[in-house]
Amino acid sequence: MPQKDKYANFAELTKGEIEGQDYARYIRNTGSEIVVIAPHGGGIERGTSEIAKALAGDVFSVYCFEGLKRTGNKSLHITSTRFDDPLCLEMVKSASTVVAIHGCDGDEDAVYVGGRKAAFKQRLIRSLQSGGFTASEANDDHPGMHPRNLCNLCAEGGLQLEITQGLRRRMFKGLSRAERKFTTQEFDEFVEVLREGIEDK
User: Fold this and answer.
1) Which range among 34-38, 76-80, 85-89, 154-158 shows the weakest confidence by mean pLDDT?
2) pTM over 0.85, yes/no
3) What is the DSSP string of the chain?
4) How far is the C-alpha of 37 from the C-alpha of 152, rounded, in Å?
5) What are phi and psi of 148, to 5 degrees?
6) pLDDT at 3
């Protein structure tokens, strides 16, 4: 993170923000051993919760934390090693695999795949590449390797996908709240390729 988070943990955030006004949580538990999460959704890392919900569909369980503010949603960002909403922790700790959807800066169309589940990571990178997307192993900025990272709290270790702003822009009419209601063919293709790669794990 280039700047320090405003809140050190979830309990601190709840004292300074109002659920339903400043932020929302979207939870769907299907009983799947795979859980998809977007801990920086809504207006924080725009487009990530929409991708997570579509990816999960009716198959995988999903948790999204979404910024609802008109402006200043970045203040709701809690780094993944310190994001400790009990409802999220309960889901990820009971899962065998977690796939975390994040957004990163960059005008290039790219996906950087991190996390501790090494073999799965390489298979998913190949799957994305075969589907026509630029994907590579995450660099030092987004490795997703810390044992306390949300994606690694599950039984088998998980993955962290950092999707550039450039690619996310191509998936929607635009990245404003209203524009994110309209997805593109790029969005559909990305979700389909990603789901196939996850189901093939």
Assistant:
1) 154-158
2) yes
3) --S--S-SSHHHHHHHS-BTTTEEEEEE----SEEEEEEEEETTSTTHHHHHHHHHTTTSEEEEEEE--SS-GGGG---TTT---HHHHHHHHT-SEEEEEEEE--SS--EEEESS-HHHHHHHHHHHHHTT--EEE--TTS----TTSGGGSSSS--EEEEEEHHHHHHHBS-SSTTGGGSB-HHHHHHHHHHHHHHHT-
4) 12
5) -90, 0
6) 62
- Go through the chain and tell me how many residues it has: 201
Residue type, 91: M
Query: Order of strands across the sheet with 159-164?
Result: 23-28, 61-67, 34-42, 97-104, 159-164, 111-114, 135-137
Give me the DSSP letters along 54-77: HHHTTTSEEEEEEE--SS-GGGG-
Which sequence spans correspond to the domains of the chain?
A: 10-199
Residues 144, 83: Cα–Cα separation, whole Å: 13
Rounded Cα gap, residues 188 and 28, in angstroms:
21
Question: Which class does domain 10-199 fall in?
Answer: alpha beta
Q: What confidence tens digit (pLDDT) does each residue in 122-151 have?
A: 999 999 999 999 999 997 777 888 999 999
Q: Is there a contact between 78 and 13 (Cβ–Cβ < 8 Å)?
A: yes
pLDDT at position 2 over 80? no
